[in-house]
Write a structure and sequence with these properties.
The structure is a homodimer of 363-residue chains. Chain A has 363 residues and is α/β, with parallel strands linked by helices. Helix content of chain A is 47%, strand content 17%. Chain A has 2 domains: 177 residues, Nucleotidyltransferase, domain 5, CATH 3.30.420.40; 149 residues, Nucleotidyltransferase, domain 5 (2-Layer Sandwich).
């Protein structure tokens, strides 16, 4: 056996060993009750949350009162960021943890809605469905969506209508019409110009520091603030720091430093945030226009659900989310901003229930 | 032993096994002649070249006639791009291959000049020197530099004076004054805004395709040209393609498509190239200004060595290198563009000879 082949076998064995362990808790459970449960999973570039809810057949209007049986949290599950194998492990792990916490087996699950970032094409969806199929018994209904859909559902109680803007580590705008048309913009990750995201803001700020150091750009308060935050002593050290770890979330964690500098009057930081607002607003506008959510006169009311750390209200003067809304409402005065009270994983669980009930009613 | 620990031991054994193999050829060589050899290595983000030259103690003016004994080529050795272990393996491998080709042992080596991209800080330099020290006998003089320095030397016959602009997969401007001052700009990789590089050009072009698809930007010929080049059928598939492999060189390989579209009159492609020219020129200007290479009146003559695929003359109308020179000469009319006739690895070997002779003369 060549060393390369040995390594493949070794890795495969390690994986099997781990996955057996993931579901071990099921052996200790007795006969499960038969009312059944739902799993809603929100997998982002920073963290992954899985919610377990009871499966009770009641009407849509009561959905918001569905109790949460268990909640589990894990790290990044965007396959474009951490790779397919790591993403899969994280998702399987966090689902097992949620079920284990409420003492349910996989056989009690009625439906799973996996809303994960990095699902950009039907082939992504199919690949994830295939390995999800191996984990659950045949009767379990499986739905795989982009995480943006769950975020929208978290603000609309599971109804797919309007536009959602997510700006956390990554950013994306996703919209649905009531008759089922959908459209998206941005969400293509940092290489493909996702500049409104937390990663985009932080990368632009880091770039500004390097430019100031090189003599290619104006000096900025970002230099001392970012170096201090990272415990580095010179701008040259930023290069080593940046490439030491390819995690997008690690870069995006610098956003609060940029906001603080902008609030303190730094022009360079201010410009980075203004550009991010323009980027985010232009993504929403593209979706609204393509779907005609604003009506023929451009003034119809439609909801925009705002999700993610970048859009959360800050105490200081600089509120990125509010600036984006101001920018959008200049074009579309009917925009109704919604900041959801529940997290996207709950939106995913609502969607699982919705999709399941539709299939059930159909036949 | 835990599976993690087992993996560490296994990897270490694999490494020892491979490295033993690298130098096996030395056992088959007889007693080596004592005139000695020099190694010059140019390690970029796309490829790594190692040159072996004879060590003959003659004067500086004759340096350009140094014959090449052997040349070996390998892949990327930028530790920021492929990681420390892979970079190290590649460098050790390619040096062994060059020595093996001319039938020399490590004991015949007098000096090694390793010019590798990703060396941005004295700590990078020291880390590489440390493991290089383990490979060669104690008498061998070792020099580790940023690859830009070798590129400059390839255009100035080993003299460190003037500015070099490299634009291949990455880009950097590096300059030296005759009294030993140095300065650099850009070269901080894609996250830190290296937008004039081949990677930068291609990433901007890919971004333009995604924006056109989303409805956030004008439609462009880049869409059909890039999709055809990559054998993809839709812009959504670009996301999967982009993140399937994190190699910067793979993205940068799309530059010729962008040039072709710009030559065919595509406005979006044209804008991407014009922005790259501005970026590259601004890096050079920052270095020239900081070092005062242009003299007090801004009109003194100084060489600018142009290296890398992006700057090579194209047959069509769009010559990025020429545009950059035009842009620089508006500020600094004394600029003398040089397109080197030898490759940077030869520049590295010249530097090894230069540094060695200086140390020899000093003591």
């Amino acid at each position: 056996m060549t060393p390369e082949r040995e390594k493949v076998v070794f890795d495969a064995e390690m994986k099997r060993y781990r996955n057996g362990e993931i579901w071990e808790f099921e052996d200790d459970l007795g006969v499960s009750d038969d009312s059944g449960v739902l799993l809603g999973l929100d997998g982002g570039t920073t963290s992954t949350v899985c919610i377990c809810m009871p499966m009770i057949p009641f009407s849509h209007s009561q959905l918001h009162s569905l109790p949460i049986l268990a909640r589990a949290v894990a790290g990044c599950s965007n396959h474009n960021s951490v790779g397919e194998i790591a993403a899969r492990e994280t998702i399987e792990q966090v689902m097992a943890e949620a079920l284990s916490k409420c003492g349910s087996k996989r056989s009690s699950v009625r439906a799973v809605c996996l809303a994960v970032s990095g699902v950009n094409h039907p082939t992504d969806q199919q690949r994830i469905l295939n390995w999800l199929r191996d984990i659950f018994p045949n009767h379990v209904k499986l739905y795989v969506l982009n995480d943006a859909v769950a975020a929208l559902a978290s603000g609309t109680m599971g109804k797919l209508h309007g536009c959602v803007l997510i700006a956390g580590t990554g950013s994306i705008a996703y919209g649905f019409t009531e008759d089922g048309k959908e459209a998206r913009a941005a969400g293509a990750g940092p290489v493909l110009g996702d500049w409104g995201s937390g990663y985009g803001i932080a990368a632009q700020a880091l770039t500004a520091v390097v430019r100031a150091h090189d003599g290619r750009g104006p000096s900025t308060m970002l230099t001392s603030s970012i170096l201090q935050k990272l415990g580095l002593s010179s701008a040259e050290e930023l290069i080593g720091w940046t490439y030491a770890d390819p995690s997008w979330a690690r870069i995006a964690a610098l956003v609060p430093v940029v906001v603080t500098c902008a609030e303190a009057g730094d022009e360079v930081a201010n410009k980075v945030l203004l550009e991010s607002v323009q980027e985010l607003a232009s993504s929403v506008k593209a979706v609204v226009q393509r779907l005609g959510l604003c009506g023929q006169d451009g003034k119809s009311a439609f909801p925009i659900v705002m999700v993610g750390g970048v859009l959360e209200a800050h105490r200081g003067r600089w509120d990125i989310g509010q600036e984006v809304v101001n920018c959008i409402s200049k074009c579309f005065p009917g925009v109704i901003p919604i900041r959801p009270k529940v997290e996207p994983a709950v939106g995913a669980a609502w969607l699982a229930w919705n999709f399941f009930m539709k299939e059930y009613q159909r036949g």
